[in-house]
Every structure is written in C-alpha cells, then in structure tokens.
C-alpha cells in the first residue's frame, strides 16, 4: 500500500531519537518553532515536473522540516507525514 | 441524480470504519488536524482540463483529505463531501 | 423587472423544502457550514465571456451553494440571492 | 460642481424609499448584509477604458450595492456615495 | 523646500472649513469613514509614468480622500499629507 | 565598515532635531503614525537595477519615512536604519 | 555533515558577542525588532539560480538578519539558523 502525494506535497517518515543520535543531530528545546528530521518517502508530481524543484529533493533524502507543518497518517501500522515542499527547510548530507 | 462539481472541486464519499480496517489504514487520534479517507465520485472541469492536474486523481481513487475541509451534502439518502482539489493530500494505492 | 448580475456573479432563487423533497435532496443539519439548493436565474458577463467558465453553469440549473454566501434581495415580491460563481459548489442533475 | 471618481470607482446616488416602492423593490430586513438600490452618477476611467467592464454599467443605471461599501460625501446639499465597481452587485432593469 | 513623493504617492494640502463652504462641499458627520477635501500639491513618478493613471489627477486638482489615509508632515510651517493615489476617491470640478 | 542593503532595502541615518530645525521641518506630535526625516546612506541592488525605481532616490537625499518602519542597527558607534524603499514616503529638496 | 537549504533559504551561523566586539558592531537593546549578525554557511538553489539574487550574497559573508526570523538547528554540536533570503537585511563589509 502506497501514498502518492498530490500537487507539491511530499510524504516523509519521521526519524526516531536513536537515529538522530547516530546521525549526530540534536534538536534544541527552545521556545522557538522546533524543526524535526525525517526521510523522504514519496514526492508529488508538481515537484517532479518542475525544472527548478525536481533536483532539490529525492526519495531517501534526510530532511529537516517545520515541526507543526503537515498532516500525520498511519498506513499498515506505519506513521507518515504529508506536507508541502515549502515546509521542508533543508536536506542533510 | 448526479453532482457535477464546479471549478477545481471534487465530490468524494467518505469511507466507513470497516472499510478502513480492510484497507489497513488507521488514522491517529492526535490533537493535530485529522485526515480522513474517501473515494472520489466526481471531478470538476478545471481539474479535467488542466494538463498538470488531470492525471493526479481519477474517479474511484481512494484519497486522504483534510477532515475540516469541504461541505457535506446528502443526495437520495447518500452523504457526499464537496471540496477543493487542494484539500486532497494524497492518493492511496 | 430583471436583475443583471455584474462581474462573475450569479443570481439564484432558493428552492423551498417541498421542492427539495421532490428532487430527493436532504441537507444535513450538522455543525458544519450548510449548503443550500437553488435554481440559477441570471449569470454575470465575466462568466459568459470566459471560455473555461461559461459551460459550467446555465440558467435553470439546480445548484448547491454555500449557505452564508451572497446577498439577498427582494424584487416584485420575489426573493433572490446574488453571489459569486466561486460560492456555487456543484450542479445537481 | 461634479465628482469625477478615480480608478475603478463609481459615484452613485441612493434612491429613497418612495422610489423603491415605485420600482417594486423591497429590501429585506434580515441579519445578513443588506443591499441598497441607487442610481449611477459617474463612472471612473479604469472602468470606461476596460473592454470587459465598460459595458456592464452606464450612467443612470439603477444598481444594487453592498450597504456598507463606499464613502458618503455631500456636494451642494446632495449626498453621493463613492464605491468600487466590485461593490455593485447587479443592475436592475 | 519641496516634497517629492515616491512611487504612487501624492502630496496634498487639506482645505480648511471656510474653503469647503465656498466650494459648496459639506462633509457629513456620520459614523462611517469620513472623507476630506484637499488640493493636490505633488504627484509621484509611478503615477506620472503610467499611461492609465497620469490623466486622472493633476497638481491643483481638488480631491476627496479617505480621512484616515496617509501621513501628515509639516514643512516650513505648512502641513501636508502624503498618501497613495488609491486613497484618493474622486476629483471635484 | 559598510552596510550593503539586500533587495529593495535602503540604509538611512536619522537626522537629529537640530538638523530638522535648520532645514525648517517640524514633525507634528499627533496620534497618527509619525514620519521622520533621514539621509540616505546606501541603496539596495533591486532598486539600482530597476528602471522605474533607480531615479527616485539617491545617496545623500533627505527623505521622510514611516517612523515604525525598518530595523535599527549600530555600526562603529553610529546608528542606522535599514528599511524597504516602500517605507520611504518622499524626498525633501 | 552538511545542510543544503531548499528554495530561497540560507543557512547562517550566528556570530558570538566577542566577534561582534571585534568587528565593531553593537546591537541596540531597544523595544524594536532586534537584528543579529551572522555568517553565511550555505545558500539555497533558488538564490544561486536567480540572476538578480545570486550576486547579493556569498558564503562567508557577514550579514544582519531579523532576530525572530528562521529556525534553529544543531548539527554535530554546532548551532545553525535556516532562514529565507528575504529575512537578511544587509551584508556588512
């Protein structure tokens, strides 16, 4: 069972704390909007067909996104988040 | 009796709990905006005539949409929701 | 005496409860925005002159529209509602 | 002394109750935004020079407009209202 | 000492009550937004260089504008108001 | 040490009270938004490269701007304000 | 480990107080929005591919930005801020 995001949306899977530790990322617990780290699972057609956007993000990329962005959904027991490309701040390499 | 949505609207029929279980989708009961699953019943002309949009969604597709989006209407005893394409987050395959 | 709507407006006449029953439509009494059924009486020039919009709606069409949209006016004892095309959700056939 | 409206504005003169009765229009006293009837006195250059807009309204046309739209001004003892074309809902014929 | 307004701004000088009486204009004291009468002193370059706008207003024109629009400034003891062309409602002839 | 404003921003230096007196400008102390007088120190590239904007303002021009616009910054003991061109109301000559 | 900002975003590293002293910048502690000084670490593709924007900012530039703009993230023990180009006010040379 697959999720195909519409428009300029992206499906991501949030990375758990252990993974964050392994990758060396620690997110600060300040009063500011807190970003989170996730892995890209699927990319919407408006991104794939846009010359400027299609090279900015790929499936399996690790990304940082705005914590309060997007909608969570559980499929076959797994949790995903669907959000707009614009809510993804950066790719971590 | 048929509903023909105007502009970039879509008519969907919400899938009941049993159906959700069969298809393996469970929607989380968090404090966040909750998405819902539905089946596409009719698609507005601005989507069908748009080269970029017309391939993203088809009648009978199962979709996830924002719970608070759209307007409910009952026709011949059946309940439908009319909403904008932009309120549909993803197609489930 | 006639009403000629300006711009992308439409003049509609709300259908009474009996008529709704005959046509088989029942509108739910939920807490959500409630749609209403009406008949199209006149269509503004910006719709008639727009290639994309002019085929979406015709005089005498039965339509569902957002209950809180538009402005009511009484002419020669008859009540009409003037609203934007965008506030009409669907045509019922 | 004349008022020449700027941009896409229109100068109108509100029709008094007697005139409304003669023309057969009665405006409902509901809780909704109440429209009013008026006569067009002058039309701004952005309307007269717009191919799409210039045929929609003429001086002396009787129009229905949003009650809370526009600015009132008294010139030589006469009261006028200056408002945007977009606040005029329909022409009454 | 001169004021050269930037962009689509206009510098105006508010006409005093006596002048209003002479010109026959009386502004109503209603609860609605109150317009005021003024004389055009200087016109910004975005108006003078716009084919559609440059003929709508000239220096020395008497204009009606929204009372709460613009910024007041005193130069060499004289008070002026700097506002956007869009806040000028009409020219009085 | 220099400040190079980005985009359509301008760096200005606020003129002190004595200078205002010499140049004959007195700013009113009303309840309305109060403008201030300043000298242009640097101009952003989006202004210098825009045919319509580049002639409206030059370094050393005396300008009037919205008091609450922009961001203050102190460099080498001197205070500057960085603001958008659109927050500058007029040039004083 | 690297941060690649998406769209028109920039990754910056805030300069500490000592560095500010060395570079002679002191930021005022007023009630107004307070700017901060930082060094550019990475620049997003929508800036690098835009003829107008790509020359306005370079990696290693010292910049002043709006204090409340952007999102903080810690990678390998170092803190960065990801923000939009539009939230960078000026380059300091």
Automatic annotation (TrEMBL), chains A, B, C, D, E, F, G:
Keywords (A to Z) from UniProt: Chaperone, Cytoplasm
PROSITE patterns, sorted: CHAPERONINS_CPN10
Main location: cytoplasm
Keyword Endoplasmic reticulum: no
GO cellular component: cytoplasm
GO terms, molecular function: ATP binding; metal ion binding; protein folding chaperone; protein-folding chaperone binding; unfolded protein binding
Compartment list: Cytoplasm
HAMAP family according to UniProt: CH10
Subunit record text: Heptamer of 7 subunits arranged in a ring. Interacts with the chaperonin GroEL.
Role of this protein: Together with the chaperonin GroEL, plays an essential role in assisting protein folding. The GroEL-GroES system forms a nano-cage that allows encapsulation of the non-native substrate proteins and provides a physical environment optimized to promote and accelerate protein folding. GroES binds to the apical surface of the GroEL ring, thereby capping the opening of the GroEL channel.
Alphabetized NCBIfam families for the sequence: PRK00364.2-2
Assigned protein family: Belongs to the GroES chaperonin family.
Record-given protein name: Co-chaperonin GroES
Source organism of the structure: Tepidimicrobium xylanilyticum
């Amino acid at each position: 069972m697959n999720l195909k995001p519409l428009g300029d949306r992206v499906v991501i899977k949030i990375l758990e704390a252990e993974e964050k530790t392994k990758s060396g990322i620690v997110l600060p617990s300040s009063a500011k909007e807190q970003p989170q780290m996730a892995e890209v699972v699927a990319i919407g057609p408006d991104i794939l067909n846009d010359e400027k956007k299609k090279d900015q993000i790929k499936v399996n990329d690790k990304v940082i996104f705005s914590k309060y962005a997007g909608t969570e959904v559980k499929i076959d027991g797994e949790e995903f988040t669907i959000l707009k490309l614009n809510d993804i701040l950066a790719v971590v390499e």
